[in-house]
Specification:
The chain is mainly alpha-helical. It has six helices and two strands, in the order H-H-H-H-H-E-E-H. It has one domain (about 1-105): Arc Repressor Mutant, subunit A, CATH 1.10.10. It has a two-stranded antiparallel ribbon with strand order 1-2.
Length: about 110
């Protein structure tokens, strides 16, 4: 049904940031962000600026809270996804949230 509405091209719909319309979920995304700590926002903005998933916590800016704790907190909220590449865990921002952050904060 979704594919029919997108002319059988889901990938083309998600291809460009300007094409992605977040519509009604923008308020929900902002509500999530409003509840995050300053340290979590710093990590989210860092992840939003990455083209590829991050493996090393050293790539994150310094925060008052452990970076591992921040990632775990964001994962519990389903804001960060874990990607397994060659027996290593990498982290990336949820793609819808990434589009919202890039459009409104970066």
């Amino acid at each position: 049904m979704i594919k029919q509405g997108l002319n059988n091209s889901v990938g083309e719909c998600l291809e460009g940031e300007d094409k992605l319309s977040l519509g009604d979920i923008e308020n929900s995304l902002q509500s999530y962000l409003d509840r995050l700590s300053e340290s979590e926002i710093v990590v989210i903005k860092c992840l939003a600026n990455q083209e590829n998933p991050i493996h090393n916590f050293q790539q994150f800016p310094e925060t008052r809270v452990s970076k591992r704790e921040i990632i775990q907190s964001l994962k519990r909220r389903c804001l960060v996804d874990t990607v397994r590449i060659e027996s290593n865990n990498y982290f990336q921002l949820n793609l819808v949230l990434k589009a919202y952050i890039m459009r409104n904060y970066c």
